[in-house]
Amino acid sequence: MTSITTLEATGTPAITDSPVVSTTKAKPAFGILGFLSTSHMVNDMMQSLILAMYPILKGDFSLSFTQIGLISLTYQFTASLLQPLIGLLTDRKPQPYWLPLGMLSTLVGLILLAFAPSYAVLLLASAFIGIGSAIFHPESSRIARLASGGRHGFAQSVFQVGGNMGSALGPLLAAIVIVPFGQHSVAWFGLAALLGVVMLLRVSRWYASQHAAVTRARAPAVAAPYPLRVVVGAIAVLLVLIFSKYFYVAGLSSFYTFYLIERFGVSVQNSQLLLFVFLFASAVGTILGGSVGDRIGRKPVIWVSILGVAPFALLLPHANLFWTVMLTIIIGLVLSSAFSAILVYAQELMPGKVGMVSGLFFGFAFGMGGLGAAVLGVFADHTSIDYVYHAIAYLPLLGLVAALLPKGKHKAER
């Protein structure tokens, strides 16, 4: 059972993974969750500008699809390598004020992206943005759990929906600002990064005070709900599901604008707007998945969100423009509900290691997204975007492995 410590000084509950019974019903710290979600929106909006700029960068720098995939790989791989390490480090010694530093790293990457004179600088910009994400996600996920009031799925969904909204806004802002005004106009979004730094300073101060109170309470650690071999097996299954989701999403989103342009003759600006529609649907699905998981359990949400996408994914390569848009909306709504449920399920399999688990799963998701973009970019160069969409359509069928998740008394299933 999750313990709740009520802090009289702030009136805000602090959550730990310790089996201490509370006499006070905790409520989520909605203000902190709001700051986290908004800063996540800013962080991921700046990241998604890279994705949204692909058609522009391809033309300006004469890039191949392989080179475009390598840009995604650089950003995603940097984030994926660092996130588990940062999560493990902050499990041992929390670093409240690393959050604004992470946002500053993303800001540096954004400025480099705006004024990059060469492909090499584009890759460097992607690396800085990846470093910012590596710092931001594990600690923010930990704070979301701390501020959850015991509603862990809800808190993770609120946190995640900000990121998905930011990812959705990137293509929309690219269509409104970057397509008409060019690469240098990206620098204006640095103002949003500065706003993110201010919000994260507020979150960091709250986190520092909460952590000090929890440390004074010295609540005992809680044991894992299953033997080690069962936990390791369950984590492996969850990582397979993350692979299925993010490899598929990498192919769908990284090349969606090119797919619409090449197959249906859509303009660059309209293709960005349709990418926004898909990503916005993903944001809506995120908030639904966490709340539903708190009520009915994580495992049913995981089942439906991954395997439930398969029929729509298989139909997508054969659809006309109207049904392509409709199917991607459904895919975005259903598939995006998976991550919050998977992350909270994994955190409850390994209590007391929130940072490491968050870093592992965010990092693996980023890595699979980057690897997917790079590998599928090579396929696209040697075949076609249409072939890529046919090939990835089978990935959601890997949702069948959710049947291997353990049954029993895991509290995420109650």
TrEMBL record:
Pfam name, any one: MFS_1
Record field: transmembrane: 68-90, 97-115, 121-137, 158-181, 187-208, 228-261, 273-293, 300-316, 322-345, 357-381, 387-405
Domain of life assignment: Bacteria
Coiled-coil spans in chain: none
Keywords of the record: Membrane, Transmembrane, Transmembrane helix
Xref: InterPro entries: MFS, MFS_dom, MFS_trans_sf
CDD domains assigned: MFS_FsR
SUPFAM superfamilies tied to this protein: MFS general substrate transporter
Residue ranges annotated for the Major facilitator superfamily (MFS) profile domain, each copy included: 32-411
Claim: Transmembrane is one of the keywords in the record: yes
Name of the protein in question: MFS transporter
Source organism of this protein record: Polaromonas aquatica
